[in-house]
Design goal:
alpha/beta; Rossmann fold; 7-stranded parallel beta sheet; 3-stranded mixed beta sheet; 11 helices; 12 strands; 36% helix; binds NADP nicotinamide-adenine-dinucleotide phosphate; NAD(P)_dehydrat-like; oxidoreductase; NAD dependent epimerase/dehydratase; oxidoreductase activity, acting on the CH-OH group of donors, NAD or NADP as acceptor; Epimerase_deHydtase
C-alpha cells in the first residue's frame, strides 16, 4: 500500500487531489498549518478511516527544516506531492510573504525527503504556468514545457515586484528552478516530476471552505461575477490559459503512479486559452438568474475580450495528453460545476 505525503492539505487543488488519491487506493499523509485546519480536513471525510488520512502540522514552510519530521512515517512514505505555496496578490514583504515559503518550502521538502525518507521513489511538485511565462514571447507562438520564466533573484526581491501578479509569478519560477537545481546538484535516490498548471477553475470539495471569503485566488473571479461585482465593467482576463481542478489533480496522481516514466519531466497543464467574456457567457446561459449582475454589451465587456484576432498565444499540451492520458474538460463544465459547489458554501 502506498503512503503519499501531500503538503498543503487545506488547499483548493490539494483537497481534490486528496480525494482522487484516496479513491485510487493510496493512503494519505497531509500537512496543514494548525490543529483547527487538521480537524477540518479530517471532518469533511467522515468515511475515511484515520489510518488512511493522517494529518501533520507544519506551521511555517519557510523554514528549511519544516518538513523534517513530517516525512518520517510508519509505514514509511513512498511518494510526496508538494502543493503548499502562497497564491495571492496582496503582498507586504515580497521575500517573507512569497519567496521564502515558495522557494524554501520547495528546497525544504526535497532535502527532508533526501535526508529522512529514503523509501520515497517519487516527488511531484506543483509549479505553475507562472514558471513558464515569458513577457518577450512573440504573439502567435505556442507555449509548451520548453518555456521558462527567466526572472532573476535581483528582480524578484525588488519592491516593484510585489505589485499585481509579479510576486506570485516569480515565487513559482524561482521555486521550480531551485527544485531542478537541487536534483542536478544532489542526485537524490528519488525522481522529480513538475506540474505546470495554468489558471485553475473548478468545483471545491464540499466542506473545505468555511465561507465564500476563503475561495482560493483563481476561483474568486467566478465567485465575484456571480455576486454581481463586475456588472458595470468586466475585469481584464489577466491569464492566457486555464485548466479544471479535477484534470490538474488527476495529472498529479497519474504522474506519481507512473513512476520513472515521468521522472525528470515538467508538464504544462491546460485545456486551452480563455477570456473573461467566455466565462460571462457561460454564467448567463447556465444560470439565467444571475444574468442581471453580469456585465453586458460591448463597452462593459471590452476588457474581458480576447485581443483582436483571438488568443494571443497558442499552446501545446500534448505531453500531458500523451504521458498522463488527460482528457481535458471544457470551460462550460468547469464554470458550471464551480458555481454549483460555491452555492453550498456559507456566505
Ligand atoms: P490555495 O487554495 O491557496 O492553497 C494553497 C495551500 O498552500 C494551502 O494549503 C495553504 O495553507 C498553503 N500555504 C500557502 N502559503 C503557505 C505558507 N506560507 N505556509 C504554509 N502553507 C502555506 O491554492 P491552490 O489554488 O490550491 O494552489 C495550490 C498550488 O497550485 C500552489 O502551489 C499554486 O502555486 C499552484 N497553482 C495554482 C493555480 C491556480 O490557478 N489555483 C495555478 C497554477 C499553479 P492555508 O490553507 O493554511 O493557507
Amino acid at each position: 500500500m502506498s503512503q503519499i505525503l501531500i503538503t498543503g492539505g487545506t488547499g483548493f487543488l490539494a483537497s481534490t487531489l486528496i480525494d482522487i488519491l484516496l479513491s485510487r487506493g493510496h493512503n494519505i499523509i497531509t500537512t496543514v498549518r494548525s490543529a483547527e485546519k487538521a480537524s477540518q480536513v479530517q471532518s469533511i471525510r467522515p468515511d475515511i478511516p484515520p489510518h488512511r488520512l493522517i494529518i501533520k502540522i507544519v506551521p511555517d514552510i519557510s523554514l528549511l527544516s519544516a518538513f523534517d519530521s513530517a516525512v518520517v512515517n510508519d509505514p514509511p512514505l513512498t511518494g510526496v506531492i508538494h502543493t503548499a505555496s502562497p497564491f495571492h496578490y496582496s503582498i507586504d514583504n515580497i521575500k517573507k510573504d512569497m519567496l521564502d515559503p515558495a522557494v524554501n518550502g520547495t528546497i525544504g521538502i526535497l532535502s527532508s525527503v533526501q535526508k529522512y525518507a529514503p523509501t520515497v521513489k517519487k516527488v511531484v511538485i506543483t509549479s505553475s504556468f507562472a514558471a513558464m511565462w515569458n513577457p518577450h514571447k512573440p504573439a502567435g507562438s505556442k507555449y509548451s514545457e520548453k518555456d521558462w520564466n527567466n526572472v532573476s533573484w535581483e528582480e524578484a526581491v525588488s519592491p516593484a515586484n510585489a505589485q499585481g501578479q509579479a510576486g506570485y509569478r516569480t515565487s513559482k519560477a524561482l521555486a521550480e528552478r531551485e527544485a531542478w537545481g537541487f536534483m542536478e546538484r544532489e542526485k537524490p535516490s528519488f525522481g522529480l516530476t513538475v506540474m505546470n498548471p495554468s489558471l485553475i477553475f473548478g468545483p471545491v470539495v464540499p466542506g473545505s471552505l468555511r465561507n465564500l471569503g476563503e475561495v482560493n485566488t483563481s476561483n474568486t473571479r467566478i465567485r465575484d461575477f456571480v455576486a454581481g461585482k463586475f456588472r458595470e465593467k468586466c475585469p481584464a482576463t489577466g491569464s492566457a490559459f486555464w485548466v479544471d481542478v479535477r484534470d490538474a489533480a488527476m495529472a498529479h496522481a497519474v504522474a506519481l503512479e507512473k513512476g520513472e516514466v515521468t521522472d525528470g519531466k515538467r508538464y504544462f497543464l491546460t485545456a486551452g486559452a480563455f477570456c473573461n467574456r467566455e466565462i460571462v457567457e457561460v454564467l448567463g446561459e447556465e444560470f439565467p438568474e444571475v444574468k442581471g449582475g453580469l456585465p453586458e454589451g460591448g463597452e462593459a465587456l471590452r476588457d474581458g475580450e480576447y485581443p483582436e484576432g483571438g488568443p494571443k498565444y497558442g499552446f501545446d499540451n500534448s505531453a500531458s495528453v500523451g504521458d498522463l492520458g488527460l482528457v481535458y474538460r471544457g470551460l462550460r463544465e468547469s464554470v458550471r460545476d464551480t458555481v454549483v459547489t460555491l452555492r453550498g458554501v456559507p456566505e
